[in-house]
Amino acid sequence: MIVRIVGEGQFEIGESAAARLEELDDELDAAVQAKDDAKFKAALSASVEVVRSGGTPLPAESLQAADIILPASDADMDEVLKLLNDGQLES
Known about the structure:
Blueprint: E1 2-5, E2 9-13, H1 15-34, H2 37-54, E3 55-57, E4 68-70, H3 77-85
Helix pairs in contact: 1-2
């Protein structure tokens, strides 16, 4: 699975990292529903760390389609929701 982190590049991750991202996606959804920016930031930061630590960076010239696009780890909930609404990120 290919994951792009905005501003960092693309990574290839294995099944265990992908499974952990699914769990964290549930946490992100719950944080959005609760309008809890602190929990959102924690889950986003954990998601980015899963990709960084469990993934293999792809060369910058690699143009593979990403299965998942993560915002930068320092993005807040309002920024991410705006990007989603504008179609710049996929949910």
